[in-house]
Amino acid sequence: MKRFSAAAAAAALALAAAACSDTGNGGEATSMEDENAESITVWHTGDASQQPMLDAAGALFEDETGVKVEVEIIDWADAHTKILTAIQSGDGPDVFTGGLSWGIEFGELGGLVDLRQYETENLESNVIDGLWQSIESPGGELYGVPLNMTTYAMFYRSDILAENGLEVPATWDEMDAAITQL
C-alpha cells in the first residue's frame, strides 16, 4: 500500500509539475523542460507524518525526470492564507496540496494553470463522480487533481439503535430520520 501511495503521489506530482511557472503572471504555464528546471517546490498541507511518503514520491519523480522535489509541510491553519498570499505575490510553490475547493478558487483568481492542456483524459474515469464534480470548475477547467480518494466510514452503536427500535440506516434519509428520533 505504501508503494502504491508513493507511486500515486509521484504521478500526481508529475502531472502538476508539468504546469510549473515562475513567470508571476498567474496561470501561464511553461513546462519543466522549457524552464530547464532543476527542482520543483511542493507545499503540502498536512502534518509532518506525511513527509516520508512525499519524500518517497519525490525520489521516484527525481529518478524519472532528474528534477529534485523539495517538499515543505504547511499547517492547515495557515495554508489557505499562505497560498493565497503566494498567488497574489507571484512567488509561490510549483505545486501545492490543500482543500478540494482551493483549486477552483485559486484557479479562478488566475493563480493556477488549467491542467486540461496536458494529458488528463484518463483522470476523470479514475475519480469518484462526486469528487470529480468538486474539482472541476463551473467553466470546465481543471486546476487540480485528487492526491488521494479517502474512503470514509461511519460507526454506529447497534445497542442504542435497538433500544430505540431503529434499524441500521441504509440511506441518508434513514440516517437523518434516526438522528432526529434519537
From TrEMBL:
Residues 1-21 form the signal peptide. SUPFAM superfamilies: Periplasmic binding protein-like II. It holds the Pfam family SBP_bac_1. PROSITE patterns: PROKAR_LIPOPROTEIN. Gene3D superfamilies: Periplasmic binding protein-like II. The keyword Chaperone does not apply. It comes from the Bacteria. Keywords: Signal. The keyword Ribonucleoprotein does not apply. This is Extracellular solute-binding protein. It comes from Glycomyces endophyticus.
